[in-house]
Amino acid sequence: MRRLGIAILVIAWASAAQAEPQQLGSRGGVQASSAPAQSVIVVPAGTTVSLALTHPILNRTAKVGDAVYAETVFPVALDSQMAIPPGTYVQGQIDTLTRPGIFSPHAQFQIHFTKIIFANGYTVDPSDFQDVTIGQSSARQASAAPGMPLAAPGDVIPAVANAYVQASPRNDVLLDNGSQIEMVLQVPLQLDAASVAAAVRASKSVRLGKFKSASTCRTIPGTPGTPDTVIPGTPGTPGTPDTVIPGMNGAPDTVIPGIPATPGTPATVIPGSPSTPDIPCPGPPVVIPNPKAQRQSFQINVPVQVSGKQLPAGSYQVTWKGLGPLAEVQILQKKKVVASVQARVVLLNRKSPAVAPAILTNSDGSVSLQSLRFPGQTFALYFDQGAAGEKI
Questions:
Q1: Going by C-beta distance under 8 Å and a sequence separation of 6 or more, which residues neighbour residue 221?
Q2: Is 157 helix (H, G, I), strand (E, B) or coil?
């Protein structure tokens, strides 16, 4: 009977193993045979992916061109389907680096990413999608993906991070192991659904506690100082009084002078050395939002809509803070705010030669302002064509 029971268990386990792939497919992984399988997952432009560094960036040795290694710490899911699971490795390269100084206690990095490596070995190069033309066939398609950059100029960095780090020149590490930054997908990323599903099964969640700090900074102990050295002085002498011998028979007294007193010498004090306080290590670097304000000008020759707000032809200015990926942009004309809209700040791989407004003609004949590039700048603004602008 015991052998029969074991045989029944083995048969039941084998049947469950054969049925498991079909059951997973019904939940959005590998599709069941009754439904067509989704072959491609498209992660839209503007998606942010949370990363933790697996190798530190050191203050003294970091330079442009150095490799950056990280892994995802939070999953990216689309319509209840996993697109990028946690524990996916990401490799990038430093494009620009600003070190902290005495008057600028911060560091700033721009990093572009070259590889996304899933747990099963499936590898994606974001630059393969730099020329993706989704949304270019018609204005209706373009407005269906708010803020998605068109690839026609070829200057949009496919996947990028712009880290603004609060640090000091005394920090030996600018971005430590486990430091979290955001990778922004600036163009749509196409993934093979079957490979992603296999990677999800092999992936494991990331424990942030596993990252050990690479800092070698240790507190420098202070000195206790030395006490004053006191050399005693010499005591004085009291001296002796005069000796008076009375005279006789009217003779005057005879005075024998005494010995005068002598002063002593004061103590000599040699000051000791003062104590010095401990020199602590600076606080760890912290990634914070970029507070820098931006102000640019542009001109449009025809009336356009921006996020539902109508702008007449004319000259304008735009202001916002930081380098995104999202920013609240104020549009001004003659120093007066005429609209406040949300825009996506898109980083470029080269400077724009001139102001370049991108205009789209909608299916109803209206014209929308899709993006703005500015002369000499390596960033652009892309506007949400679907949301209504806030009226001022």
A1: 278
A2: coil
Strand 304-306 to 309-311 pairing: antiparallel
* Total-model pTM: 0.74
**CA-closest candidate to residue 58, choices 169, 173, 170, 165:** 173
| pLDDT tens per residue across span 272-303 | 899 999 989 999 999 999 989 999 999 998 89
SS3 189: strand
Domain 36-206 listed as CATH 2.40.128.260: yes
Q: In the numeric block, which tokens belong to residue 28? A: 């959005």
Q: What is the pLDDT of residues 45-78, one digit of tens each?
A: 999 999 999 999 999 999 999 999 999 999 999 9
Q: Are 184 and 346 in contact (CB under 8 A)?
A: no
Name the 3-class secondary structure at 13: helix
Tell me if 53 sits within 8 A of 71, measured CB to CB. no
**Minimal CA–CA distance to 283: which of 17, 155, 137, 105?**
105
Phi, psi of 13 (to 5 degrees): -65, -40
The domain ranges of the chain are: 36-206, 289-383
Residue located via tokens 């949009």:
156
Residue 297: its H or E element: strand 293-300
Write the burial class of residue 109 (CB in 10 Å: 0-12 exposed, 13-18 middle, 19+ buried). Answer: buried
